[in-house]
């Protein structure tokens, strides 16, 4: 017979077998999966999830204030970029937040690893069953109809109420991956009534079947002399893309005979990224490397090969890991270019804000971050065959701390119709656009067909543009033409790297975050593009027109190296 003392103790034993339940509060949710994805089934309870926990940063607003302080030309601190330690002090979580989150994990027998220099990101691994219990979630399998690729996500999750103010968000949860990636367009895209390419021009661009470094050097007054003062470029490569050194050598022999054909790139691999030199070139990677190495003469170029292959991996994971790698460097390259993006609405706001804040960290340290604006006009990364029903801004182009690069075509240059552009639904109009964007909207007016399709109070993009059509690249020994804003971003990045080299030679700091300078002064070193539109969507009838000054097709315009130096007093 059990004594009356032991009975209540035994009753309590099951309760102590696991932690006390905590009150949960819905933290993020979305009504439906993004377009193209459909619910398939509940995720297997035993499937292992690699989750990332973002802790609330101590002073992100202070970081942004410091970023503007060192990036705005009229400020006394302009160019006095922050150190790695100074930036980390703004984003490091408080000791209270670290303790609160780790106590919650420990109570649930979950170990964690710190994955960011400032300690604001943790990683954990848990089975679906535990993640569902921990987060009040319903992780499920979703299938993308176009590719039949599958991913495990939840449409809603919660966090304990006592972690509000300590745990910023959990990922991956409601952000969905891009199943397609964003490769450049091989051959010529659908641009209506296009003239024969460059056949009415003079000089290096005359009568050519494709764009070459010599043509771009002529078009943008770029020097051919070597960079000698440490101006460097990072090129980010994703979705199973890697360049081939043999193709680069052939490209330089053909397109830059004045350079050593053995000029090559440095390599960094992240997340299982690879660099097989077996002839299996990635078109995007070859494009980016051949035109950064081929334009920014002798500037050190680093290719960051980020793993993931062709499976449905979260592009935002790759972006985050690339940014974390960069902020962990004592002396990161002064320019980073990325020719990939994703539709903004597929990324949760909290994740988008955090990633954008990571680019702010890099900008505060003197790094210029450039992203291609997208190849879908106003319909996101690529224009759909069935047109579009709303304007889709791209990410990270909507982040104000990156410089978004649109595209042009023909000489004289005009906007290419696939040039991604528009207005963010996540970020409000930044102060550096307080004059230019209202001026555009006042002249553009409100087209009846566009009513309600875009957020006129949002951050406008792109910021600048460059040529984006029929770049001649070498792939597996053969020359092919490729097009897209993925051509424009490495081109503009190369111009920035050459400008930086001139600044460093004069004993001055690199440009860093470009946007406040571009909108205040740098626009005088750009060529304003005033013809064309980005009507690639809806049978070439919907989108934005170019205009005098900034517009959401070509931004402030295309670069002119010599004029940019003049603006900088060099």
Automatic annotation (TrEMBL):
SMART domains: Pro-kuma_activ. The keyword Protease applies. The active site is at residues 284, 288, 486. It is an enzyme of class 3 (hydrolase). SUPFAM superfamilies: Protease propeptides/inhibitors, Subtilisin-like. One of its GO terms (molecular function) is peptidase activity. The keyword Metal-binding applies. Its cofactor is Ca(2+). Binds 1 Ca(2+) ion per subunit. GO terms for biological process: proteolysis. Its main location: secreted. Keywords: Calcium, Hydrolase, Metal-binding, Protease, Serine protease, Signal, Zymogen. InterPro entries: Peptidase_S8/S53_dom (IPR000209), Peptidase_S8/S53_dom_sf (IPR036852), S53_propep (IPR015366), Sedolisin_dom (IPR030400), Tripeptidyl-peptidase_I (IPR050819). It is found in: Secreted, Extracellular space. It catalyses: Release of an N-terminal tripeptide from a polypeptide. Residues 210-570 form the Peptidase S53 domain. Ca(2+) binds at residues 528-529, 549, 551. Its EC number is 3.4.14.10. Secreted tripeptidyl-peptidase which degrades proteins at acidic pHs and is involved in virulence. This is tripeptidyl-peptidase II. It comes from Rhodofomes roseus.
